[in-house]
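Narrative of activities, Objective 1.

The group set out to show that a structural description can be obtained from nothing but a protein's sequence at a throughput compatible with the screening campaign. Below is one input-output pair from the validation batch, recorded exactly as produced.
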Amino acid sequence: MPQTGEKEHILPFFKKQTLTLPLVSLFLNTMIIKSILDTDLYKFTTSYAYIKLFPYAVGKFTFKDRDETEYPDEFVHALQDEVKAMSRIRLTEAEIAFMQGACRFLPRVYWEWLSSFHFNPEKIHIALDDNRQLHVEVNDFMYKATLYEVPLLSIISELRNKFFGHVPDMEQIGSKLAEKVQLSNDHKLTFSEFGTRRRFSFTVQDAVISYLNENAHYCAGTSNCHFAMKYNLKPLGTHPHEWFMFHGAQFGYKHANYMALENWVNVYDGDLGTALSDTYTSDIFLSNISRKQAKLFDGVRCDSGDEFSFTDRLIARYRELGVDPTTKTIIFSNALDFEKALQIHDYCRGKIRCSFGIGTNLTNDTGFKPSNIVMKLAACKMNVNQEWKECVKLSDDLGKHMGSDREMEACLYELNLTSKMS
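Output recorded for this entry:
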């Protein structure tokens, strides 16, 4: 791996990748998702957990554009074409071999099942409402429905850039990336690439990860399994908010965090030991976590709220439970850039271990406003004969709350959090 300061020979890679408008249009008219592995690892780990524990559960995922973008009809047609193209991809034997070697916690039988899986356009409903807001909904068994989220977000993010006429300046991207990597190398700042769902494009993410692979001494890996395979990096991830949202809808919000973590242990027996902390606010998570869970899980992921306050509160909770916080790790992943990560890194020094999952700031730092899009579990049921139950996500950031007003009020009331209602 090149030494710090030997970054100049990589920058021409970005220069020769500079795209003109015709080339961008040509690229974006090709198939965007070319591999089932072009997604985040936690989609596979969560899919397998549903198969193991809730094989008959059904879920409904819905798309939300927080910027309330107005989309043209042509966008819907392009998205539908991409969905049809996505249905043709299959997991290959080479991909099975890589994932089996990289993820000992997932058995070969899962990958063999996945090799028979294909994305089904009939499970995806795409439409514009009267205000030209985009609506996307996926309805399927949970172990399959969860697999649609990240590819669909990646496609929508890339298509938006096409329709806005955005052309990436790859030389500028490369220059900014070199500064970020230099900061990481100089300060021994450990981070992972988490940028698939809101990337500018597949090509930009590919170029960024290639550069990280060659130059970033403290890059722990990537959440994207396709690029992990391409560059022989470690695929990283544990579980998403939906895992807790599913448990909240089915078992009640007071028990959601505890049961979600217990069931995760039942599936993975201590592997994948980073607990997501903010589905129903971090205050509720910290009050729910047991001493056994605090000792068993390697640490937590902080995905919303004030990182410095959360660090203090988590350390205090570990000490209250008789757990040495210096043996635990916080993974921060809340829309971070490298300067903010360095501030948090310095704050945590000597108190608790830390690492950073950095996404949009790596794969969509192009000078254009990145998409602010999400796709979350909206409703679920244990089997096809049951009634739908709404799902809620609260978060430590009010703007990230998700769910109907009625169900959110019920959740807040049950958790005695009515003052946090936005």
